[in-house]
Write a structure and sequence with these properties.
Number of helices: 15
Distance between the termini: 41 Å
CATH topology: TIM Barrel
Strand content: 5-15%
CATH class: Alpha Beta
Bound molecules: S-adenosyl-L-homocysteine
Radius of gyration: 19 Å
Largest sheet: 10 strands, parallel
Order of helices and strands: HHHEHEHEHEHHEEHEHEHHEHHEH
CATH superfamily: Aldolase class I
Number of strands: 10
Amino acid sequence: MKNLDVILGKENLDFEDIQQLLSLEEPEEIELLRRKAFEVKQENVGPKIYLRGLIEFSNYCINDCYYCGIRKSNSSVKRYWLDEDEVVECARYAINKGYGSIVLQSGERRDQRFIDFVCRTVERIKSETRSEKLPDGAGITLCVGEQSYSTYKRFFEAGAHRYLLRIETSNPELFAKIHPESVSFARRLECLYFLKDIGFQVGTGVMIGLPGQTIEDLARDILFFKEIDADMIGMGPYIVHKQTPMAEYEEYFRKNKYKIYLLSLKMIAVTRLALKDVNIASTTALQALYPFGREEGFRFGANVVMPLLTPGQYRREYVLYEGKPCIDEFTNDCGECLIRRITNLGMELGLNEWGDSLHFRKRKSEK
Ligand code: SAH
């Protein structure tokens, strides 16, 4: 591309620029994009990669999203629920290892028992992980879907301070194609505003390579992240799961696998260029497509990673997509392997710190 240098030199990327960058195909051009994104990451959020121990505490789900392996209609999944002690134990383990923060993720439920469980567990983790190194205890991120304003507020008051809720795609028509009617785009958006209003550091993201999704859609996704002023971004390739209504796309997926992988890396890089000081995760799904996918994510501008801490015996039941790595039942901690992978890249780890989004801190201090 003739004007690649000009675009990469811009302070603010417009819609056209974003589309052009996402369309890059030449390896040399993609390398220029990667280098620029990495440079912008170093300048804006520093050299460290932060760890969040991921605890998938339950796969019970009331939703029936067409792409997801743990959708409620998938009767081949054995449903599980870790008890409070098990979750707290995983969290303490993570903090002892120096991970600094944890993510509690599950299928979606909105009943009182579930809400009370989350609040109590968060409170306990907060009080039982305080140490000299982390006087305020673990940094806690929740990823438990759409809830009411008052539930989010309870979660926040219990001590969670970050929340991940992907918009999945910012194109409402595409959103409607991959969700049942009971899951609405408008509601998802409203939840993101609730979370911001309450004071959470808010993370969102999309799936990349959905059937029917265009480069234009993805460019709009990046503008959407900017518009809602997200603090954290977690996105990754869409990967077919056989026991879902979207299994018919297996052939499409197989044929486009490399393209989708590359597109995911380009999305990380361009999001870094457009949003600069947010935290961006290098997600597990990237590694499902390519063994070193997560490492590549860091090289393309990501600065957060979520080592899986779900106890081994449950991992096979939390498979949202095919080929999920690290579901070997004899493993309880993926952190050590990830830490080795990160140090092998010559990158620095942010141990024993929360590694909050700098964007959030700036947003707060400007108020
Ligand atoms: N129920 C919670 C968290 C679990 S799902 C929630 O909805 O937030 C977490 C994310 O996994 C989803 O937001 C979705 O983007 C991703 N996901 C689900 N199925 C997937 C698939 N087949 N391929 C790639 N990502 C998928």
